[in-house]
């Protein structure tokens, strides 16, 4: 077999392949065998039809077509390996010559991973938010915990903001009660904004037995998006009572004996959260600076596929689970179709560039992923997916996604190399130390989400 490679652009090549006909022998034999099992010829047992009879009855062309289709993947793979290119996606194959008994020639155009020069990233500098926890932050955290332990007691007075009212609802559109527009015994905290627009004003000031009517756009159900006339009847008003902020509360709501110990623990937890957010912010900003430094040509077909995949996943998975259409989503986001298209394309470009650059760094730095690192990452991914580690691991193996996880960890390690070399300071001018590679892997995963399977060589 002879082959040659022609570079069409930095992300696409054309392979020209010429195969001596004798190299098709195995595929020709397989083609005759396959046709033998599929056809019946009078006077011959099934599977025992001579090749000359098949040629006479069904045509030599049918056999050649079957043989060539069988052999092409092998010859294409050999040509790719000989040319030392990293293909992306499926090739566009064109058979240019097929002479029975003489030669098979074809061309294959395919997108490839571009050659990337890793820039000098040692000079990257980024500024991140300082880790600062104020007394107000601590009090807010303690108050949120206090709210969780609030009790409600019925009161005989008009409802006010913060009260929990039990209501019956009836929604009409064009004077007709909707089939799914009646609900009884609904509990609602006034001011929470968790039900219909306008309900807060309608129930405020009503006592048990009071009734009001208001107009609101329905957020779900059979008449979603339509204006409805809603009648609300208050059947009970209950006041929320918060526990006293004292040592007894600390003992009830936590493992601590005193309120001061609870406050100290809240401060520590907030500091840890802000340190995690700071680390994530640093990794994202370092990655953004690295992407600015590197020239990365993007295969147009790969980009088109990535954009379509992102849009499909959003529309049919994420929005589908929420019961939203793409039109309603854009309306809620306040975006035009053009803005959405541009934003999706920018995200796809960033995801592909991130993987190309970090994969090149993995190769250059010879970064490997050991079993312990892979297991730790798998545990984190399982936790975020809501599955047990065993369930998640089984799904990963059955879905053939182990290389994807390995890629996430290795790219995280590559980004950690860049972050370590960068200068990271907070808004107070203090240097920030970062060393959690698995958190870095999560940053990479978020940036390059949904690109893994397309950019694997």
Automatic annotation (TrEMBL):
<feature type="domain" description="PPIase FKBP-type">
    <location>
        <begin position="162"/>
        <end position="215"/>
    </location>
</feature>
<dbReference type="Pfam" id="PF00254">
    <property type="entry name" value="FKBP_C"/>
</dbReference>
<dbReference type="InterPro" id="IPR037041">
    <property type="entry name" value="Trigger_fac_C_sf"/>
</dbReference>
<keyword id="KW-0143">Chaperone</keyword>
<dbReference type="Pfam" id="PF05698">
    <property type="entry name" value="Trigger_C"/>
</dbReference>
<dbReference type="Pfam" id="PF05697">
    <property type="entry name" value="Trigger_N"/>
</dbReference>
<dbReference type="InterPro" id="IPR036611">
    <property type="entry name" value="Trigger_fac_ribosome-bd_sf"/>
</dbReference>
<dbReference type="InterPro" id="IPR008880">
    <property type="entry name" value="Trigger_fac_C"/>
</dbReference>
<comment type="similarity">
    <text>Belongs to the FKBP-type PPIase family. Tig subfamily.</text>
</comment>
<dbReference type="InterPro" id="IPR046357">
    <property type="entry name" value="PPIase_dom_sf"/>
</dbReference>
<keyword id="KW-0697">Rotamase</keyword>
<protein>
    <recommendedName>
        <fullName>Trigger factor</fullName>
        <ecNumber>5.2.1.8</ecNumber>
    </recommendedName>
</protein>
<feature type="region of interest" description="Disordered">
    <location>
        <begin position="426"/>
        <end position="457"/>
    </location>
</feature>
<keyword id="KW-0413">Isomerase</keyword>
<dbReference type="InterPro" id="IPR027304">
    <property type="entry name" value="Trigger_fact/SurA_dom_sf"/>
</dbReference>
<feature type="compositionally biased region" description="Acidic residues">
    <location>
        <begin position="432"/>
        <end position="457"/>
    </location>
</feature>
<dbReference type="InterPro" id="IPR008881">
    <property type="entry name" value="Trigger_fac_ribosome-bd_bac"/>
</dbReference>
<keyword id="KW-0963">Cytoplasm</keyword>
<dbReference type="InterPro" id="IPR001179">
    <property type="entry name" value="PPIase_FKBP_dom"/>
</dbReference>
<keyword id="KW-0132">Cell division</keyword>
<dbReference type="InterPro" id="IPR005215">
    <property type="entry name" value="Trig_fac"/>
</dbReference>
<keyword id="KW-0131">Cell cycle</keyword>
<comment type="function">
    <text>Involved in protein export. Acts as a chaperone by maintaining the newly synthesized protein in an open conformation. Functions as a peptidyl-prolyl cis-trans isomerase.</text>
</comment>
């Amino acid at each position: 077999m002879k082959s040659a490679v022609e570079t069409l652009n930095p992300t696409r090549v054309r392979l020209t392949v010429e195969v001596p006909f004798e190299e098709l022998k195995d595929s020709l034999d397989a083609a005759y065998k396959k046709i033998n099992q599929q056809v019946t010829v009078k006077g011959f047992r099934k599977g025992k039809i001579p090749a000359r009879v098949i040629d006479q009855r069904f045509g030599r062309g049918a056999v050649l077509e079957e043989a060539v289709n069988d052999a092409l993947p092998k010859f294409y793979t050999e040509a790719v390996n000989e040319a030392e290119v990293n293909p992306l996606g499926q090739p566009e194959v064109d058979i240019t010559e097929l002479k029975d008994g003489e030669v098979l020639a074809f061309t294959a155009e395919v997108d490839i991973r571009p050659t990337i020069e890793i820039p000098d990233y040692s000079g990257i500098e980024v500024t991140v938010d300082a880790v600062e926890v104020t007394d107000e932050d601590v009090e807010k955290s303690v108050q949120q915990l206090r709210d969780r332990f609030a009790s409600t007691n019925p009161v005989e007075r008009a409802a006010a903001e913060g009260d929990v009212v039990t209501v019956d609802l009836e929604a009409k559109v064009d004077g007709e009660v909707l089939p799914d527009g009646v609900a009884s015994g609904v509990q609602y905290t006034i001011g929470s904004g968790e039900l219909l627009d306008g309900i807060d004003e309608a129930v405020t000031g009503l006592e048990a037995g009071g009734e009001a009517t208001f107009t609101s756009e329905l957020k779900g159900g059979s008449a979603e998006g339509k204006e409805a006339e809603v009648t609300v009847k208050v059947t009970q008003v209950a006041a929320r009572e918060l526990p006293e902020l004292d040592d007894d509360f600390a003992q009830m709501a936590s493992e601590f004996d005193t309120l001061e110990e609870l406050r100290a623990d809240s401060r520590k937890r907030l500091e840890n959260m802000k340190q995690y957010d700071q680390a994530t912010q640093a990794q994202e900003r370092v990655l953004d600076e690295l992407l600015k430094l590197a020239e990365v040509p993007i295969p147009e077909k790969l980009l088109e596929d990535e954009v379509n995949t992102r849009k499909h996943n959003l529309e049919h998975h994420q929005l589908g689970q929420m019961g939203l259409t793409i039109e309603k989503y854009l309306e809620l986001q306040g975006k035009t179709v053009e803005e959405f298209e541009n934003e999706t394309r920018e995200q796809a470009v960033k995801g592909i560039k991130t993987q190309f650059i970090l994969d090149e760094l993995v190769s250059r730095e010879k970064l490997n992923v050991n079993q312990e690192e892979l297991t730790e990452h798998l545990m984190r991914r399982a936790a975020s997916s809501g599955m047990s580690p065993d369930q998640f691991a089984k799904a990963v193996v059955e879905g053939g996604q182990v290389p994807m996880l390995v890629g996430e960890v290795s790219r995280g390690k590559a980004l950690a190399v860049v972050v370590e070399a960068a200068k990271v300071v907070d808004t107070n001018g203090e240097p920030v130390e970062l060393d959690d590679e698995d958190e870095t892997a999560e940053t990479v995963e978020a940036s390059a989400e949904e690109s893994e399977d397309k950019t694997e060589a």
